[in-house]
């Protein structure tokens, strides 16, 4: 029996239908339906009578939901007791992130956080892509993940920043005007990150919007791509944060058809976080990361 099932049965009992319960728990209606159906199968009884008027507790459901409420209350009391014992005088916050955010955005947050909570340790776990970051969260090896949005419903998420993809042209490039056309970009050998997994968004965008171009996508490191453009070996398309620091001699243009990656903060929905983790999440929410990313 899972905590998510207990939360689902209580929410459906409170709201009388699956759709409002899903909104309350920030889950999809199919996820709520699956949780209830799985619990009914495990218990061997029907918990709700489904009909036009919504979901009504059966006699067995009424007795079982009372126990579910008690279980959730006990879990909340356990967490409160643990929080009282731990406080904010110590503890650890583990953050899984890809390099560009770990380099350009997280240090300023960590500096402010340590001013307030000097005894809480911060660990940054760098991962090459968002799939690894999300798996690190699932495995319990990180408390907070910086990933791409949207993500799966098992995570509680909120948007951190939107990062524009930009075109980098070598120092010798000569482009008329402030905007680049696809034809002008096609004149260069185009160096991209591999398609999977982090480059998938860009590759899909180019396949849908752009004409065929001469591309190479075997290089794994953002900094290597920037160095190759510096040497006149081609042009590149990278998220701006990933390209930073951009050498001043390179020419930077927006894509002919704009594209952004949406970066968000994720935590496992059912996780019981320590006060240190909640404090760090609150600190993250105080920053205007869109402005910070623009001036980086």
From TrEMBL:
UniProtKB keywords: DNA-binding, Transcription, Transcription regulation
Matches recorded under InterPro entries: HTH-type_LysR_regulators, LysR_HTH_N, LysR_subst-bd, WH-like_DNA-bd_sf, WH_DNA-bd_sf
UniProt cross-references to Pfam families, sorted A to Z: HTH_1 (PF00126), LysR_substrate (PF03466)
Top-rank lineage group of the source organism: Bacteria
Annotated HTH lysR-type domain residues: 1-58
SUPFAM superfamilies: Periplasmic binding protein-like II, Winged helix' DNA-binding domain
Protein's UniProt keywords contain Nucleus: no
Entry's family note: Belongs to the LysR transcriptional regulatory family.
Name of the molecule in the record: LysR family transcriptional regulator
């Amino acid at each position: 029996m899972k905590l998510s099932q207990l939360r689902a049965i209580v929410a459906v009992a409170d709201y009388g239908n699956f759709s409002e319960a899903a909104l309350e728990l920030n889950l999809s209606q199919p996820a709520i339906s699956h949780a209830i159906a799985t619990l009914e199968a495990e218990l061997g009884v029907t918990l709700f009578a489904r009909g036009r008027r919504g979901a009504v507790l059966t006699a067995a459901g009424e007795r079982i939901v009372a126990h579910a409420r008690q279980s959730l209350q006990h879990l909340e009391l356990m967490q409160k007791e643990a929080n009282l014992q731990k406080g904010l005088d110590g503890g650890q916050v583990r953050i899984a992130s890809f390099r560009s955010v770990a380099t350009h955005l997280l240090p300023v947050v960590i500096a402010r956080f340590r001013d307030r909570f000097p005894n809480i340790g911060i660990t940054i776990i760098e991962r090459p892509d968002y799939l690894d970051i999300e798996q690190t969260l699932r495995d319990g090896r990180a408390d907070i993940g910086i990933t791409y949005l949207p993500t799966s419903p098992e995570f509680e998420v909120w948007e951190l920043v939107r990062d524009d993809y930009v075109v980098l042209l070598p120092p010798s490039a000569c482009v008329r005007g402030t905007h680049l056309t696809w034809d002008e970009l096609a004149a260069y050998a185009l160096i991209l990150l591999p398609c999977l997994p982090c480059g998938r968004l860009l590759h899909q965008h180019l396949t849908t919007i752009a004409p065929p171009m001469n591309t190479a996508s075997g290089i794994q490191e953002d900094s290597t791509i920037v160095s190759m453009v510096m040497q006149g070996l081609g042009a590149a398309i990278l998220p701006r944060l990933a390209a930073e620091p951009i050498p001043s001699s390179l020419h930077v243009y927006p894509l002919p058809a704009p594209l952004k990656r949406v970066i968000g903060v994720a935590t496992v929905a059912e996780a019981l976080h320590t006060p240190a983790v909640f404090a760090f999440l609150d600190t993250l929410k105080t920053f205007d990361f869109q402005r910070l990313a623009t001036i980086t």
